[in-house]
Design a protein that fits this description.
Elements (H helix, E strand, L loop, with lengths): L29 H23 L1 H8 L3 H28 L5 H18 L3 H28 L5 H30 L8 H31 L10 H37 L3 H29 L1 H10 L2 H6 L5 H16 L1 H12 L4 H30 L1 H8 L17 H5 L2
Helix pairs in contact: 1-5, 1-6, 1-7, 3-5, 3-14, 4-5, 4-7, 5-6, 5-14, 6-9, 6-13, 8-9, 8-13, 8-14, 8-15, 9-10, 9-12, 9-13, 10-13, 13-14, 14-15
């Protein structure tokens, strides 16, 4: 006979029998999802602020390029490598208010960055900002999972659209505020962090109240944890997913970092005009991010992964040879199709390893951060030696890695979700 365990009054019930299953959301909790997306916008706006203010930091603190590289390394290490660790920890010990604490870490980092007078303080500041992001992404992805009402891809897409919007908004705000007002004006961005803390505290209350249902779902059955795959097959499949993420983010790095240079060199565009073409690509990325999740809910994650990685190949292969008009058209098609991949890959990984939402979210968000930064650095070094056109020629073959999708198992998600 199973003993009863007394739980504190403010914690989730320790016994699944105590949970009112009718309270488990059967449809998406839109208020939570949109609040998460807004918080993601704030978080990634502040993250993208850091590289945008490198010229200001370099001039005001008399830094060299090696120092800039060290700042990037510190931010990338804290923002990417810690995410799987945070995700694994919170899988075992969910922390409802860690989201607000992560945003508080970002707030501390921004304040320090606004008053930093030397490289050491800058490194400490960007480390705090990176830690905030590492805490935010795995737990926020878990909350999106819990509030999805079973529409996992749809929930992840709403969550990620906010991040994409924030990544593009950060440089614009930096140009409008920091460039004209100097390093100390970074302090104004701490207001965004304060707003984020308030929003995430409210989300934390909902998350705390939902933990009972979360534990009940885990307790209800091994059915949720049984994919019918061996451990080796699961690990092999995760390796395939990692290669697909590599393909996606190295190609995205070529476009986001060097597309304007490619257009300027090939067509003689001004910087302003080249930025407009980059905006077309980034807008397509935002649209594709939203579409990928809902489509995956309807036709399956593997099908979306097939289309979103391998489906880019003919357009990517044609891009280096296209005229200016077709460059704009092809880049928009590439952006929409390729951006749909991440939601599908993330939810597929969560279904592949049920019960490890935080670990999978941390792993793949961390890879996205890390590979994006690594790709930019590697491709920049190649461009220095062989030129920008060569970079776009070799990167056009990356989507062919999508052929590896054939090696992924077909998950019977209906069986996994059955109560």
């Amino acid at each position: 006979m199973r003993p009863n365990v007394e739980a504190p009054a403010n914690s989730p019930p320790a016994c699944a029998d105590e949970v009112d299953e009718k309270a488990i959301p059967l449809s998406p909790v839109f208020g939570i999802l949109f609040a998460l997306s807004f918080a993601h916008l704030l978080n990634d706006t502040m993250q993208s602020l850091i590289p945008a203010i490198y010229p200001i930091l370099k001039a005001e603190l008399q830094l060299d390029y090696a120092h800039i590289g060290l700042i990037t390394l510190t931010n990338q290490l804290t923002a990417s490598l810690l995410q799987p660790v945070v995700g694994a920890f919170t899988d075992k010990h969910p922390q409802p208010f860690s989201l607000a604490l992560g945003m508080a870490s970002t707030l501390i980092g921004l304040v320090l960055l606004s008053i930093a007078t030397n490289l050491g303080l800058v490194l400490l500041a960007v480390g705090f900002v990176g830690i905030g992001s590492s805490v935010f992404h795995p737990e926020a992805s878990r909350v999106a999972h819990l509030s999805s009402g079973g529409r996992l891809g749809f929930a992840q897409s709403i969550f990620q659209v906010g991040g994409n919007a924030g990544s593009s908004l950060g440089p614009l705000l930096a140009a409008a505020i920091v460039v004209t007002r100097g390093q100390k004006s970074i302090m104004w961005f701490s207001l965004l962090a304060l707003v984020g803390i308030i929003v995430l505290s409210r989300i934390g209350i909902w998350y705390r109240d939902s933990l009972a249902h979360h534990h009940a779902a885990k307790h209800r059955g091994t059915l949720h944890r049984d994919t019918g795959l061996t451990r080796k097959r699961v690990i092999f499949s995760l390796g395939i997913l990692i290669l697909l993420v590599f393909s996606k983010y190295f190609y995205l790095a070529s476009m986001s970092s060097y597309y304007t240079f490619f257009l300027i060199q090939k067509f003689g565009l001004s910087v302003r005009d080249a930025q407009l073409y980059l905006f077309i690509f980034l807008a397509a990325i935002a649209a594709g991010t939203f579409l990928g999740g809902p489509v995956g809910d309807r036709i399956g994650r593997k099908a979306v992964i097939w289309v979103s990685i391998l489906g880019v190949a003919p357009f990517a292969l044609a891009l280096p040879y296209a005229n200016l008009f077709w460059c704009a058209v092809l880049s928009a098609i590439i952006g929409v199709i390729l951006a749909s991949a991440f939601s599908a890959i993330l939810v597929y990984s969560q279904e592949l390893v049920p019960g490890k939402v935080g670990t999978m979210s941390g792993l793949f968000f961390g890879l996205a951060f890390g590979l994006g930064g690594l790709g930019s650095a590697v491709l920049g070094a190649i461009a220095d030696h062989h030129g920008i056109p060569y970079v776009f020629h070799i990167c056009s073959y990356l989507p062919l890695i999508g052929l590896l999708t054939a090696l992924l198992p077909n998950l019977d998600t209906r069986r996994l979700r059955r109560a």
